UniProtKB/TrEMBL annotation, chain A:
Protein name: Uncharacterized protein
Parts of the chain that traverse the membrane: 12-33, 45-65, 72-90
Organism: Ornithinibacillus bavariensis
Assigned keywords, A-Z: Membrane, Transmembrane, Transmembrane helix
From TrEMBL, chain B:
Domain spans labelled DUF6242: 63-244
SUPFAM superfamilies hit by this protein: Oligoxyloglucan reducing end-specific cellobiohydrolase
Protein name: DUF6242 domain-containing protein
Pfam families, per database record: DUF6242_C (PF25852)
Membrane spanning stretches: 5-23
């Protein structure tokens, strides 16, 4: 009996401390939010933390305090009302700001775009400390409806979506570098040469990048390439994305052009259908 | 111990509720990043704005929009738009409190024959077109004019128009005057100044010679109307005979108008009137072209 009371106390206090932890997190967040425009990487996290806070607090109080039944009911009711309110707010929030969030397969990176449902305007967020994020960039085109996110490497995520003209667009979030972060480089120039994969050949040459699928060949001049970070380029035609080329993790960028090209690149078609990237191997320097 | 625990819990829950409420209200304006903006964002923004469809401010056949910080006119309920080449802010120069989503009442003319807009820089100007926006002209009404308050522009026919303006207000005294044009707005001449510095409430001309200025805006006790019958050379005090029961009830004359063979004016109860709900007006008529006015009847607001 004594043991039970002891355990109850330990559990109760632990829950209470966790609730305080959530409280401090939330207050800290609000401060950072107002002061530095920091947001949760997904807006729903705010409400989820509220939910966790109230659950832990309510259970802690019920366990720790010897309360009359009526008082227990009051605490439980307040908890339930708070809980339900936050569920409603959470739903509501996601109808105003749609979160496009994707965690990388290695669970180490988060891709986050928040879309204002009403205006269609979408903003790319850069994550900080796991769950926090700050706005980084406004997407060039407004998102219209469906979209999908694909990780082409552990640090490269591609968002494919249709814009308001019905054109397919691709936006790439990059979270790394292949040159130790020392300097900027051009992906198109780094992949100079001929690359081959399953029924596909990509040639990066002086005129631009040529993509051959089966018998069909298409040249994308340098003006029609958009680079994201130092890891990926989107090949465009008539203002519409056609392909994304990304440098795989094993790709090595070196300043010395005489050194052999090492690693793979990934070619990913811009389509709303479910598709897989094609891995290409280096064949020739042209 | 138990009480500390409860108090701490209540405090935390309260703080979270307040925080959530605060966060909830912030939500709308924090979607736009103000940090790390892409450099070309500034160039893109105007295009984005231009793409938002314009919405006429009302259902009138000729209407306008002030969206995108521009004044644009439509003759066909928003299908086609004509941009007015005038800086939007100049249209609101002077004493104005509002969100600049609608033009100041009386400061513009929208008709098939003419679009005209009063605006203020150093002087007082009018931007106008008589060919539905194909060509625009500027005319100078006054080379210089003090801080503008009341403004009204109107045209009675193709050539004759008037501008009634006031400005330079200090407390409840101000300068008010009238400009007339007889050549469709190309040139303007100032009339004699009316002999009062009270604040103007209404004004109008009923023909090229006869005009009225009605004063008293804050706590009027009786209508205070000046009339000219010679195109503004002389302003005389008009006499309104107010029957005893209506003394201090009908206190602010509106703009007179022509009715059958006489002139008529509605006199309202001013901002503080409470007779019959405060909206009933007194109708007065004048058979000597505005010098003296007799009470005719009470008018319900919607008849006026």
């Amino acid at each position: 009996m004594k043991d039970r009371a002891k355990w109850k106390k330990i559990v109760g206090w632990t829950l209470f401390l966790i609730a305080i932890g959530f409280f401090c997190l939330q207050m800290g967040f609000l401060f950072l939010h107002v002061r530095y425009q920091v947001e949760y990487i997904d807006n729903r996290i705010f409400y989820m933390i509220n939910l966790l806070f109230v659950v832990f607090l309510a259970v802690a109080l019920l366990v720790l305090l010897k309360l009359k039944n009526s008082h227990q009911v009051i605490i439980a009711s307040i908890g339930v009302i708070f809980f339900l309110t936050n569920i409603v707010l959470l739903e509501n929030s996601n109808q105003q700001i749609r979160n496009i969030t994707s965690i990388s397969p290695s669970l180490s990176k988060i891709f986050s775009v928040k879309e204002n449902v009403q205006s269609g305007e979408a903003i790319y967020y850069r994550p900080y400390y796991g769950i926090l994020a700050r706005p980084k960039e406004v997407l060039e085109n407004k998102i219209n409806g469906n979209n999908k996110v694909k990780w082409l490497a552990k640090d490269i995520a591609v968002l494919t979506y249709k814009d308001k003209n019905g054109d397919i667009q691709q936006f790439v979030g990059t979270y790394g570098d292949r040159k130790g972060g020392l300097s900027y480089y051009y992906v198109g120039a780094e992949i100079h040469g001929v690359w081959q994969g399953d029924n596909v050949t990509v040639t990066s040459g002086p005129d631009g990048i040529n993509v051959t699928v089966g018998n069909e060949s298409e040249l994308f001049s340098w003006e029609n390439l958009e680079q994201f970070g130092t890891l990926a380029i989107v090949l465009k035609k008539d203002n519409e994305a056609v392909w994304t080329i990304a440098l795989k993790e094993n790709f090595e960028v070196h300043s010395d052009a005489s050194k052999p090209t090492v690693g793979n690149i990934s070619l990913y078609k811009a389509t709303m259908e479910e598709n897989q990237p094609i891995i290409l191997n280096y064949i020739d320097s042209n | 111990m138990r009480n500390y625990l409860l108090i701490l819990s209540v405090l935390m829950v309260t703080a979270i509720i307040v925080g959530t409420y605060y966060y909830q209200n912030l939500e709308h304006n924090y979607t736009l990043p103000q940090l790390n903006l892409r450099n070309n964002l500034q160039e893109e923004t105007p295009n984005e704005i231009e793409n938002t469809p314009l919405q006429p401010v009302n259902d009138d056949p000729i209407s306008y929009s002030l969206q995108n910080d521009e004044l644009t006119i439509t003759y066909n309920k928003g299908k086609d738009w004509i941009k007015v080449p005038v800086d939007k802010n100049l249209l609101f120069n002077g004493e104005y409190q509002g969100n600049k989503q609608e033009l100041i009442e009386g400061s513009y003319v929208l008709s098939e024959e003419r679009l005209a807009f009063l605006y203020k820089q150093v002087g007082l100007n009018m931007k106008y077109t008589t060919d539905q926006g194909n060509t625009w002209q500027d005319s100078v009404i006054a080379e210089e004019f003090p801080e503008l308050r009341f403004r009204k522009i109107a045209f009675l026919n193709d050539s004759f128009g008037y501008v009634i303006v006031s400005g330079d207000r200090t407390m409840s005294q101000e300068y008010s005057t009238v400009f007339l044009t007889f050549d469709s707005g190309k040139t303007w001449t100032k009339t004699e100044d009316p002999p009062t510095t009270r604040m103007i409430a209404f004004g109008s001309f009923v023909d090229e010679k006869t005009g009225f200025l009605s004063y008293g805006t804050i706590n009027p006790e009786a209508p205070d109307v000046y009339v000219t019958q010679d195109g503004g050379k002389v302003w005389r005090h008009a006499r309104l005979s107010i029957p005893a029961p209506y003394g201090k009830v009908f206190v602010q004359a509106e703009a007179p108008f022509i009715e059958e063979d006489h002139l008529a004016v509605l006199v309202n109860q001013g901002p503080n009137g409470d007779y019959e709900g405060g909206l009933v007006k007194g109708k007065f008529i004048s058979k000597d072209n505005g010098l003296t006015w007799e009470f005719l009847q009470e008018v319900e607001p919607d008849e006026g």
